[in-house]
Write a structure and sequence with these properties.
The structure is a single chain. The chain is mainly beta. It has a single domain, classed as 6 Propeller (Neuraminidase), CATH 2.120.10. The chain contains two helices and 28 strands. The strands form seven sheets. Strands 3-2-1-28 form a four-stranded antiparallel sheet, with no helix packed on it. Strands 4-5-6-7 form a four-stranded antiparallel sheet, with no helix packed on it. Strand 4 and strand 5 form a beta hairpin.
């Protein structure tokens, strides 16, 4: 009986959050990272070159963001194939709080993905709901303290909400059904109509996306792109908030890089023309160019980082970014808020680069994986300054 008691006690302890391995307060800048097994969240403190590992039970962990002051992390937990639930917690793993209260569907039939914490406090996310055989996805938001979701979108096939740096605008992608064209993988211009008197032919339908923008107060919303065929993905705000970079694919995995001004009825600008595979996209901190993790680009099969200028044909004028560092199979480039550092994947390793000195640090093997690292915000003043 006593042996059974101790076993139950151990199991109970394992289900609780495991706080920092050190009592030293985090100083920052910080990186929040998923472990490769997604069984923990790592916080890397650059100032102390130290790691803090947080566990929140026996569920899949996925960290998404920091609060605007950097004192909390935003993450989802999921049981196997179940839909994930959104939480926030302090940097030591304490004060774990559920962030979304939803009573219109039973637990397990709704979930949250891709949350983004605005600098003004709102948390936008993709709200997933299962209704019989149908799954819908809407763009929703809750306040910083959490609560019942409010909805920005209505059609039920929207994803990838991303706030502008000032928190005044939100960009996302919205899918709609279009008639397949020359093949079942792409739409064509135009799809022919049946001749008069002939029966309408059964056609295949494709889901393809355009980018939409909505103001934080929900009062203004418009389609940012309006492609008659093809699909938009990876919308990315320029740091100054003037432009949105994105990937346009006339058919699956045939990608090109574009940009557009954040105004209704703007005309998009195509930056690359030869099809390639875009793994990720971000902006230089000064908004003068984009950095793309591109594969099969400029005659190179491996995915490398390329600097894509905002003028000219990128197929000709784009250059390999940080070519002297020989970053192989690069992905998920992310600049620090002050622009001095870059963290990126290189063959699944997480590499931290000082852009002033070109010093490269390979982070702990626990950070191996295929997800991006998340920077603490510029407002973070150290854990000691947190409530």
């Amino acid at each position: 009986m006593m042996k059974r008691f101790f076993l139950l006690a151990i199991v109970s302890l394992l289900a609780l959050p495991v706080f920092a391995q050190t009592t030293l307060p985090l100083t920052g800048p910080l990186l929040a990272i998923n472990t490769v097994d997604q069984n923990a969240i790592l916080l890397y403190d650059m100032a102390n070159d130290s790691y803090r590992e947080l566990h929140f039970g026996n569920r899949d962990h996925f960290v998404w963001d920091f609060s605007p002051d950097g004192c909390r992390i935003l993450f989802t937990l999921a049981d196997g194939t179940q839909l994930p639930t959104l939480y926030s917690a302090k940097l030591d793993g304490s004060d774990q709080q559920p962030m979304v209260e939803y009573t219109d569907a039973p637990v397990g039939e709704w979930g949250v993905w891709e949350p983004d914490w605005s600098p003004t406090g709102k948390i936008a996310f993709t709200m997933i709901r299962n209704d019989a055989d149908e799954r819908t996805t809407h763009i929703a938001w809750v306040p910083a303290e959490g609560g019942a979701p409010e909805f920005y979108s209505v059609t039920g096939s929207e994803y990838t909400p991303i706030w502008s740096n000032d928190g005044q605008w939100l960009v996302y992608v919205s899918y709609s059904e279009r008639v397949a064209g020359a093949n079942v993988f792409a739409t064509a211009v135009p799809t022919s109509e049946p001749a008069p008197g002939q029966a309408e032919v059964q056609v295949s339908l494709l889901n393809e996306a355009d980018a939409w923008v909505v103001s934080a107060d929900g009062e203004t919303k418009y389609a940012l792109t309006n492609f008659p065929t093809g699909s938009v993905s990876m919308p990315r705000w320029s740091p100054d908030g003037e432009l949105v970079g994105f990937v346009f694919s006339p058919s699956g995995n045939n990608d090109t890089v574009w940009m557009i001004a954040n105004q209704a009825n703007s005309i998009p600008t195509q930056l690359s023309f030869q099809w390639h595979l875009a793994l990720d996209l971000t902006w230089l901190p000064d908004s003068t160019a984009m950095i793309g993790a591109l594969r099969d680009f400029k005659g190179v099969t491996a995915n490398l980082l390329y600097q894509v200028p905002l003028v000219g044909n990128a197929d000709e004028v784009a250059t390999q970014y940080l070519s002297e560092l020989s970053l192989s199979h690069a992905d998920y480039p992310r600049f620090s808020p002050d622009g001095r550092y870059l963290v990126t994947r290189s063959a699944y390793e997480l590499m931290l680069i000082d852009l002033q000195t070109r010093q490269v640090t390979s982070l702990d093997s626990r950070t191996l994986g295929n997800t991006p690292a998340i920077w603490s915000p510029e407002a973070f003043a150290g854990e000691a300054a947190c409530d």
